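User: My instructor asked us to take a sequence, write out its structure as tokens, and then describe one feature of it. I'm not sure where to start. Here is the sequence I was given:
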Amino acid sequence: MKPIKYLACAAFTFSSVARAEEQGIAPGRDAERDLSKATIVVTASQSNSDVRTAPASVSIVSGGDLRRRPAQDLAEALENEPGVLINSVGMSRRGISIRGMSDEHVLTLVDGKRINDASANMAHVDFNLGWVPSIAIDRVEVVRGPLSALYGSEALAGVINVLTRRPEEKLEASGLALQSFRDGSGGNSSQVAALVGGPLNEQLGLVAWGENRRRDRTQSEEDPLQSELEARKALSGSVIGWWKPAEGQRIELGFMASDDDRARATVTSGSNPVYYEYQDHVTRSRALASYAGNWSWGDVHLSAYRSVLERVNERDQGQQPTAPTKATDVVVDGRLTFVPFASNRLTLGAEHRNERLRDATINAEGEDSVNHNAVFVQSEWELMPGAMLTLGSRFDHHPAYGWETSPRAYLVVEPVDGLVIRGGVGEAFKAATLKQLSPGYITVAAGGRFIITGNPDLKPETSRSYEAGVAYHGTGWQLGATLFQNDLSNLVQTECVEFCGIRGRERRTYLNVDKARIRGIELGGEVSPVEALTLSASYSYLDPRDLTADQQLAERPNHSAKLQMAWQMTDATQFNLRGRYIGKQTVYANALPQRLDGYDLWSFDISHELGDRLTLKAGVDNIFKKRLVEESTLYSVAEPGRMVFAGLGVSF
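Assistant: Let's start with the prediction itself. The structure tokens for your sequence are:
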């Protein structure tokens, strides 16, 4: 990797791609250009790229597709995407895994801005996934592969970027109501959302949205006093305004907030079990100011934003709740893109992030903070027509372990029209959390079985990733294959260091103990045999290996496949059928490996336009009523059975 680091540092002197018309499309702008019909993405390089030739493996989910079905959060929204698997984060909650990597190694962005990572200092949480409703989403870009070279910590597996809507052409108003009914007791859900926005005059614009989302708890059939899936009640909203003081200049101010309540019935472990109610009250907010300027000599992007997440836990029957937690991130960042040479596009950027945590367990003061500082450079170089090389590196400074360098090199070649060959190599890292690094951190875990303490000597988790692929885009069809390998080091685990095996006295701490290797292949294709019908499929093979223990990594299926059929039945009616197969996977029960059988899940939705303003929606999730717990209690992800839904969309 040393030559790559030197090349990245010398990116100022390289020639690169011709300058795009503008540095990045504004959030909510059409994802397709009318003339070329090329789908434009921004996450892979922070500038406009055709998804076919972007310097990464990228897939896109449109907001329109999401609004046809009752997706409660990003996990449900992305479950049919290539290379994406839904895994367990505990307590029946789910996370997003990309190419077999942990959900903690996936960075989530909203409009290109990071949100404070709930899982960094809280256990068993999915609070990152549900606070932007489908009515506010223009599209979601999913990048598979490391992007620490642009975004820093947490981007080992990839990046999920939720781009929200900006009605730019005219005033718009839309609403969405969906009601789902579970085939069984409990589990019904509902979503009601509205959005209004557009230009107020030639310089000013405003967009606002809000959503109320609910889901009833689902009882366990094995023990009706426990919840299989928790109840959820969430209220969220946002207001964003923009001002265009001159041609090519844009200033935005915005505020987003959500209130998310969870409740479940559960039981303590041990010889005298106690049934009790477990509740989480989660509030989060983000205030944002940004500037984008397109000048004759280059483009400037500046932003400052403050994100706050608070969690209050409650438990009845005398059970000790988790300490209240408040995580605050303040970020100031900027980047400059210009063309130093005829075929070169150079991007320089910097970021300052202050991360603060208030939690009684973290140390004696109950509060700690850390400053993350970074600079990055990216050079995009057109070697020849149809050959694009992207070189870049980010340099992050953390007070606990100094500077981290994250280089990346990616080559895309289109030797003939439609044939794209791509490949790259990069390094990425994940900073240890405030709790993991705190010498004063101490908490009781596992129902009182042991305590966990912090370790200030932890190193960051790191990965080195390789990728090579080929794709052909023909008329009415496309086909592609990608090989990849991720080599991971210094993975953090808790290990017993004192009084091992003695309940109540055992002490564990965080240590860098694991090495892992995940490699595999992704295949994908799409065909439109007739104009009204599109068939698409993807297949992934994973070889996930824990090199330290010389065994398979848990809960990483070796095989998975996704299928989808989109049929425009009439001008007003669209039908979608989706299926996914999750293959055999290894889990560990009492440290012994167990193989779980594969399973498949199917769903469909249908939408019918009633004139220009109303759309009826209906469908079925989990058509064949698959319940994994009936096959084995070792499955970590709950599938509650068949759900039937109906809804109405309205727009003006």
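For the description part of your assignment, you could build on this observation: The two ends are 54 Å apart (CA to CA). Try explaining in your own words what that tells you about the chain.
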